[in-house]
Amino acid sequence: MKLSRKYPLNALRVFEAVARHASFSRAGEELGMTQTAVSYQIKLLEETLGERLFLRQPRQIVPTAVAERMLPPVTKAFDLLDEAIGQARQVSNRTLEIHSSPTFAAFWLARNLGSFQLECPDIAVRLLRATKITDFNRDPADVGIRWGVGPWPDHDCHLLGRFSFEPMLSPALARSFGPIERPEDLLKLPILGARQTSWLRWFASVGIEAPDLSGHTRHDYVEQDLCANAALAGQGVALLNHLFYADDLASGRLVAALGRACRDEIGAWLVFPPSRRNTAKIRAFRHWITTAVAADMARTEPEGVMDVG
């Protein structure tokens, strides 16, 4: 039997307030209840116990011996419940669970979360790579980093950025192939993640409409980080975002094939339920991540980026 059926918990809470105040009206004021509702709850509890709890006398109520024996353990029980709820809230407020798209999680968020934790040392972070859309009604996530064309209904959505991208490959593959002078030259190389629509958008931005990429299915990767790892290993050319791989370009681990970058309508978004927008840990994270991504974009985005639809 459920505890709420065995013992009328709401009636017990009302009993504790009435006994403490020695007044139905003052108990009602504390609990936000009418005096009639308070009387009903006391009657319900008395019927459950089969005992009188209060004697109604002119201008006062007097607890019975049964009520006097009940009050200390009932008060202690509610104190323990309040303590348990308080501890649960403290744990919840100290831990921020983030569900992020895989590439953003691995190649930006994990590398930069240290600065958030320096700013907010009281907040612990749990980061998960999410390959499906986070359902905040079922998943324990506090916030999500979603990749796509937003905003989405029933969510608070904050655009972090739309990041430029261009074909990148390893220096060894570039040397073995020879000079890459025209966009058409890329079609002679293994194209990584060729089914990604961003490839068609990039080729369109350089004047090649609907190139035939059907022969480039050997490395049919969906996630950008998989394409990048294959490109770093010299297995082909990948379409990569500057935000994630600017350091690899700067160090020479990757080279830009043609120096022709573009940007489409797909972006990275911070999302969370509207009901949680004023939660302190979410507000702190939103401020940090929007500021940090903007600063990194200013550092990594190349000049002359073409916007494509």
UniProtKB/TrEMBL annotation:
Coiled coil: none
Pfam families in alphabetical order: HTH_1 (PF00126), LysR_substrate (PF03466)
InterPro entries: LysR-type_TF_proteobact-type, LysR_HTH_N, LysR_subst-bd, WH-like_DNA-bd_sf, WH_DNA-bd_sf
Signal peptide: none
Keyword list, A-Z: DNA-binding, Transcription, Transcription regulation
Superkingdom as given in the UniProt entry: Bacteria
Protein family per UniProt: Belongs to the LysR transcriptional regulatory family.
Protein known as: LysR family transcriptional regulator
Taxonomic path: Bacteria, Pseudomonadati, Pseudomonadota, Alphaproteobacteria, Hyphomicrobiales
